[in-house]
Specification:
By secondary structure, the chain is an alpha+beta fold. The chain has a single domain (about 1-95), classed as Alpha-Beta Plaits (2-Layer Sandwich), CATH 3.30.70. It has helices at about 15-30, 60-70, 70-80, and strands spanning about 1-10, 35-40, 55-60, 85-95. It is globular and about 30 Å long.
């Protein structure tokens, strides 16, 4: 079964840091055969927090999604966001 990152942003305080993160995160995701299936764009919140940005990445399987998140390449990108965004990031198994 495939693995997915589901990232719901609650707040983005620094758009430039968000862009810098995105430039570094993409190659890390692609290194693990991940692909973005939703990244920004229109969204409507039906329940919960109103999100300025939602990102979904698909991986070959759940374990690969975890390995990517834990990888030094992705963690280097992730560290760029510290203090600049509030987000909820989950890894889920799906079809």
């Amino acid at each position: 079964m495939k693995g997915y990152w589901v990232c719901i942003y609650e707040k983005i305080d620094n758009e430039e840091k968000q862009k810098e993160y995105a430039l570094k995160a993409r190659p890390a995701v692609e290194k693990f055969s991940g692909k973005f299936i939703a990244r920004g764009g229109k969204n409507r919140t039906n329940d919960g927090i109103n999100s300025p940005r939602i990102v979904i990445a698909e991986f070959p399987d759940y374990d690969t999604a975890i390995k990517c998140y834990d990888s030094p390449d992705y963690q280097e990108a992730h560290n760029i966001l510290k203090g600049h965004v509030i987000r909820h990031h989950s890894i889920v198994e799906g079809i």
